[in-house]
Amino acid sequence: IADRQEGFGVCGWILVSLSFLLMLITFPISIWACMKVIREYERAVVFRLGRILSKKAKGPGMILILPCTDTFVKVDLRIVTCKIPPQEVLTKDAVTTQVDGVVYYRIHSAVSAVANISDVHSATLLLAQTTLRNVLGTQSLAQLLAGREETARSIQVILDNATEQWGVKVARVKIKDVRIPVAMQRAMAAEAEAARETRAKIVAAEGEMNASRALTQASMVLAESPASLQLRYLQTLTTLAAKNNSSIVFPLPIN
User: Could you list the residue ranges that cross the membrane (predicted)?
Assistant: First the structure.
């Protein structure tokens, strides 16, 4: 709101004086209609002859409203929870998803919220929906699923900058749920299963390679000492006997 130095003019001051005189004539009955109580979490923007009085909000506490010339609008300064309905979003890799979220904001300037926009809450909700679709449209599905916190912070910064002139401060943005088509879920599950099988085969192959190297080294040690092969054979028999086997095969000759 541009700061204006001019006053109400002669006619305006006459009307204000008449209004004040009317309040004095009808006192104390008029006091009940002129005195307004503003709660701690509220602020009142008072209009006198269509202009914001003192260019700032009144309250909390008790304020005086002149009859016929003054009107006021109450503004709640508490944090508002705004639920973003599910939005159809086409990601960067051409996957259709449904994303919903929650925006937490509050009004820090009552004058800007009243004078600069007609319905600040509806405008903030519509802007949050549009920003959500625009931001998610520049990301792939993998980025969306893995980086929810980064995406929410990006949306919060954009919303906070856009709503600053409305007197709104965006405190937090959260992405609640990301819904993808059933066919895409099956494809992602098959891809994850194939990746797990691939890793399992790689691990098994590495284990076989390490085992073959260990067996090669063991055979070299046994070749240097023939008696160690007999001791190893006796250890194997002890292992088989501990399992309550009924038959034991002796290789001949054992030397």
Answer: 12-34
Which token pair is 51? Answer: 């202009």
* Residue 105 identity: Y
DSSP state of 147: -
Q: Domain of 55?
A: 37-77
What residues in the chain have per-residue pLDDT under 70?
1-8, 185, 240, 242-255
pLDDT at residue 239, rounded to an integer: 75
The CATH number of the domain holding residue 102 is 3.30.479.30
Pair (71, 89) in one structural domain? no
Where among 182, 201, 223 does a domain terminate?
A: 182
| Contacts with 145 (C-beta within 8 Å, 6 or more apart), sequence order | 178
Burial of 95 (0-12, 13-18, 19+ CB in 10 A): middle
Residue 223: the pLDDT is: 77
Give the pTM: 0.68
Q: Give me the DSSP letters along 25-55.
A: HTTTTTHHHHEEEE-TTEEEEEEETTEEGGG
Cα distance between the two ends of the chain: 105
State the total domains in the chain: 2
For residue 208, the number of C-alpha atoms closer than 13 Å in the C-beta half-sphere is 6
State whether 116 and 61 are in the same domain.
Answer: no
